[in-house]
Amino acid sequence: MVLRIEDTDLERSEARFEDLLMADLKWLGLDWDEGPDLGGPYIPYRQSDRLEVYREHAERLVREAKAYLCFCTEEELEQERQKAHAEHRQPIYSGKCRHIDPADAARRRAAGEPCAIRLRIPEHPIRFHDIVHGEVEFSNEVVSDPIILRSSGVPVYNYVVVIDDALMKITHVIRGDDHLSNTPKQVALYEALGWPVPEFAHLSTILGSDRERLSKRHGATSIANFREMGVLPEALMNYLALLGWAPSGGTRELFTPAELVKEFSLERVTPSPAVFDMEKLYWLNRHYIKEAPAERIQQLALPYYKEAADSPDATVSAWLARVTGLLVPSVDRLDQLPEKAGLIFSYDAKAALSSADNAEVLQAANAKAVITRFSTKILEDDAAKEARLTPERFKQLVNEVKAETGAKGKELFHPIRIVVTGSHSGPEFDKLVPILEEGSKLPLPKHVLSVYERVLEFDKAISILSF
Fold first, then answer.
1. Which carries the bigger pLDDT value, residue 77 or residue 250?
2. To the nearest 5 percent, what fractions of the chain are helix, strand and coil?
3. What is the DSSP letter of 136?
4. Is the CATH number 3.40.50.620 carried by domain 50-203?
5. Where exactly are the structural domains of the chain?
6. What confidence category does residue 219 fall into, taking pLDDT thresholds of 50, 70 and 90?
7. From the candidates 26, 216, 290, 350, which is the catalytic residue?
8. Could you tell me which of 172, 137, 127 has the C-alpha nearest to residue 267?
9. Which of 161, 272, 346, 368 is the most exposed place for a label (fewest CB within 10 A)?
């Protein structure tokens, strides 16, 4: 695998973009055998460093009459396009400079008249084999003589990739099927230069859920986006491999990178467009988060908590790791952790009492009795007052409420959960209670309320709202 930097569009190419792209590929788990960072037998690997190579081959094509000088101005070309559009024809170049005497063309260029170099498309259909699409043919009449070197001296993409692929001995060109229409021009270049044509495989277009071409309006569309969202690289690689490709035999969907390398074949790529299903990606991500070592997920999760950035305290980091362990089973991606952690960092008793989601629980027959007995017990408990409430002591107090009110199951736990967290659903108390107690003692930018402080806030809110 060769990493080549295609940066002939100098206005849009910056070193920082190159660095970001390479970092994204490395994060995803893709590596390469040759490239600008590794070197190799066909240096340089940046097209901006190979401009003289492209000019030499373009001039060779002119000398061999396989290309010609084109003196058409941009205004003339635009007039041609407009005329073709008005006559409902394809806007292909008329070829009027094809017939200029080569000696005359050379004199005009030598005199300083601006000109581009165009490839002379042969007078026969252009055929090639595509591993995905099979035999493909384009009539020469619909393939315009393409510019290969602009009048500015800057070569065009469809030209330079052919030169590089041939000189770097590329055997397989695998790309999106939006490049299929570029291929006849490239095949014509290979033939004009007398070079063997590589194998082509044009992969199906990826669509959004509305079956339109995937774009930013569908959400994340770059590797960096998914990384920032907290999608694991192995999940993204696994999912991308399944788009437009199917393994042999069965409906298996989980593959490690090594298994993908062993199983993958271009022959099993389908030409049908693939739909990018975010929920499927999240399902895979949940699997890989679950399978990953806890220490790795805890480290990856830390940047998502602003509390971690604001506090270098090792105790805080260790506590946040426990918060992650508590919440991560309920997330699709790591950037959801801060919202899930809201029940720990943010507590609003008034909002809990007025929440429509909690209304049914709070209006139940036993709810008031459960809340009253639970609040009284917590507010009178010495361990709770000092944020030393253990899971065992918490369970003992809940059992006393159960015995005194006759409530059990949801009618017992849901009201208590609303008092402690503000919501009737959430993590298990035996894991949550120690986190709240310990967090209330840490030097965090935003104070975490202990169980006692939460019950006290809830008790005040009840008095104000006359629950």
1. 77
2. 55, 10, 35
3. E
4. yes
5. 50-203, 229-292, 341-465
6. confident
7. 216
8. 172
9. 272
Peptide bond into 338 cis (omega under 30): no
Nearest to 352 by CA among 401, 408, 410, 415: 415
What is the CATH architecture of 341-465? Answer: Orthogonal Bundle (1.10)
CA-CA distances (angstroms) from residue 282 to 219, 231, 238, 277, 291?
Answer: 13, 8, 11, 9, 14
For the domain covering 229-292, report its CATH number: 1.10.1160.10
Q: What is the pTM of this model?
A: 0.85
Fold agreement between 50-203 and 341-465: no
163: closest CA among 39, 302, 54, 45?
54
CA distance 143 to 122: 10
Identify the H or E element spanning 426. Answer: none
- Confidence at 313, pLDDT banded by 50, 70, 90: confident
Residue written as token pair 């699997």: 287
Q: Over pLDDT 70: what percentage of the chain?
A: 97
Task: Establish whether 216 is a catalytic residue.
Answer: yes
| 352 membership: H or E segment, kind and range | helix 349-354
At 14 the pLDDT is: 82
| Contact predicate 423/431, CB 8 Å | no
Q: Which two tokens stand for residue 350?
A: 């008034």
Which helix H or strand E contains 158, and what residues bound it?
Answer: helix 157-167
pLDDT at residue 79 tops 60 = yes
267 has pLDDT over 60: yes
DSSP state of 39: B
CA distances from 228 to 17, 83, 276, 284, 333 (A): 17, 48, 18, 17, 10
